[in-house]
Design goal:
It is built from 13 helices and twelve strands. β8 (about 270-275) and β9 (about 280-285) form a beta hairpin. α1 (about 15-20) runs parallel beside α7, α2 packs parallel to α12 and α4 (about 115-140) runs antiparallel to α5. The strands form three sheets. Strands 2-4-1-5-6-7 form a six-stranded mixed sheet, with helices on both faces. It has a three-stranded mixed sheet with strand order 3-9-8, sandwiched between helices. With about 350 residues, the chain is α/β, with parallel strands linked by helices.
C-alpha cells in the first residue's frame, strides 16, 4: 500500500510523516519544507506478533506501507501539487490544521478545517480536469482514423459523466461508478477519485477524543481521523518500552502509525492474511474478497500456477492449539479450494505442485 500525504503549509504534514515512519525530517514553526519525503511504516499487528512469539522464526516480516510526504501547497504563491508522486499512490492522506497557535499564522487566515478540506479538494479537481480535457482532445483527434469500441466507451464516460462532475467542482469520489467504469479510469491516476483519509491535526488535549472530528463531513471514499501530530512525533522518538505510558497519559490506546494504517486498510478495502513456519512468519496484504488463488499469487506466481488446496485456520485458533498439526487434530484446520474468499487474520498454508 502506498499513501501520499498532502495539505496546506504548516498543517503538520511532516510531523505526521515522522510519527508514522519513525523518520527525523526537519520540522519547524516558521519554515515550511519544500522537500518530498519518502518513508516506510511497519504495520504493527498484534495477531502477527502473537504468531511470531509462538514460532520464534528466523525471519519476521510484517506488512509495510510506503508514505510520500509532498511539500505543502500555497495557491496564493502560485504553488501546485506534486502530481507525479501523488498520481501513483493507492490513496491520499490530507493533513488539515485543526489546532490553534498564535505564533503560527495560517496561510488562509484563521483555522477552519472545512475551508481547508474544500480548498485541497478543489486543487485535486482542477488537476483532474486538465488530465481529462487533454485526453478528450486526443480522442477527438483520433476520430480521423476511427475510434475503437473501447475508445468510444471511454469518450462517453469522460464526456458524459467525468467532465461534467469536474466542471461542477464535484470530487470524483462522489460519483457512483460501477466496477467497469472504475477500471477504465484507473490508468489516469485521477486524484479526486482516490480514496482519501482526512487527518485533523488537533491540539494535544483532544487528540484521543472522538468528538474532535464532530461536524466534519466524510463523503464517499473518505474517512476522518483526529491526530495530535506534534505529540505523536515526540512519542515516536522515545524508546518503544516507554511509549505506552505516554500514549495512555494522552488518552490514546495506540500510536498514530497504527490508527492511520488501520484506517488506510479499511478505506482501501485491504486485509491481511498470514503464513507461518520455523523459517518465516509473514503478513500479506490483499483486497477484501480476494480468492485463495489470488492470495496464493501474492505469495508467489508458482504457487498460484500449481495451486491444489489451501489449508486455512483462524489465527487465534492456531495460537490456542499451538501448531498446525494440533489444529488438524482438532479439525479447526480447513481445506479450501481456489474460489474460497480469504478472510482477515487467517493463517493460510498453500498446497501446490509445479
Amino acid at each position: 500500500m502506498q499513501l501520499g500525504i498532502l495539505g496546506l503549509p504548516k498543517a503538520g504534514k511532516t510531523a505526521l510523516f515522522n510519527a508514522l515512519t519513525a523518520s527525523r525530517q526537519a520540522t519547524g514553526k516558521f519554515r515550511a519544507s519544500k522537500t518530498t519525503n519518502l518513508g516506510v511504516a511497519v504495520v504493527r499487528d498484534r495477531r502477527l506478533e502473537r504468531l511470531r512469539d509462538l514460532y520464534q522464526p528466523r525471519r519476521f516480516v510484517p506488512a509495510k506501507v510506503r508514505f510520500v510526504d509532498v511539500p505543502g501547497i500555497d495557491r496564493g504563491r502560485g504553488e501546485t501539487l506534486d502530481l507525479a508522486e501523488l498520481r501513483t499512490m493507492d490513496g491520499l492522506v490530507h493533513v488539515v490544521r485543526a489546532f490553534e497557535d498564535p505564533e503560527l499564522l495560517h496561510p488562509s487566515g484563521g483555522v477552519d478545517p472545512r475551508r481547508d478540506i474544500a480548498a485541497i479538494d478543489l486543487e485535486l479537481i482542477l488537476a483532474d480536469y486538465e488530465v481529462v480535457e487533454r485526453r478528450l482532445e486526443r480522442l477527438v483527434q483520433a476520430r480521423k482514423r476511427g475510434l475503437t469500441d473501447l475508445e468510444k466507451r471511454e469518450r462517453t464516460l469522460l464526456s458524459d459523466r467525468v467532465l461534467p462532475a469536474l466542471e461542477a467542482e464535484t470530487s470524483l469520489r462522489r460519483l457512483e461508478l460501477d466496477t467497469e467504469e472504475e477500471k477504465r479510469l484507473r490508468g489516469y491516476g485521477l486524484l479526486s477519485l482516490k480514496p482519501m483519509l482526512v487527518v485533523l491535526n488537533v491540539d494535544e488535549d483532544v487528540a484521543g477524543d472522538p468528538a474532535a472530528v464532530a461536524g466534519i463531513e466524510a463523503p464517499p471514499g473518505t474517512r476522518i481521523l483526529a491526530v495530535g501530530a506534534s505529540l505523536e512525533e515526540e512519542i515516536s522518538r522515545l524508546d518503544p518500552s516507554h511509549q505506552g505510558a505516554f500514549l495512555a497519559e494522552a488518552g490514546l490506546d495506540q500510536p498514530s502509525a497504527v490508527r492511520v494504517v488501520r484506517a488506510g486498510y479499511e478505506l482501501l478495502g485491504l486485509i491481511s492474511f498470514f503464513t507461518v513456519g520455523d523459517d518465516e512468519v509473514r503478513a500479506w496484504t490483499i483486497r477484501r474478497g480476494s480468492t485463495a488463488l489470488k492470495a496464493a499469487g501474492t505469495v508467489h506466481s508458482d504457487i498460484e500456477r500449481g495451486f491444489i488446496r489451501a489449508e486455512v485456520v483462524e489465527w487465534h485458533e492456531l495460537i490456542d492449539a499451538g501448531s498446525l498439526a494440533a489444529c488438524r487434530e482438532r479439525a479447526t484446520l480447513r481445506l479450501e479450494g481456489k474460489g474460497y474468499r480469504v478472510r482477515d487474520g487467517e493463517v493460510v498454508h498453500f498446497r501446490f505442485n509445479v
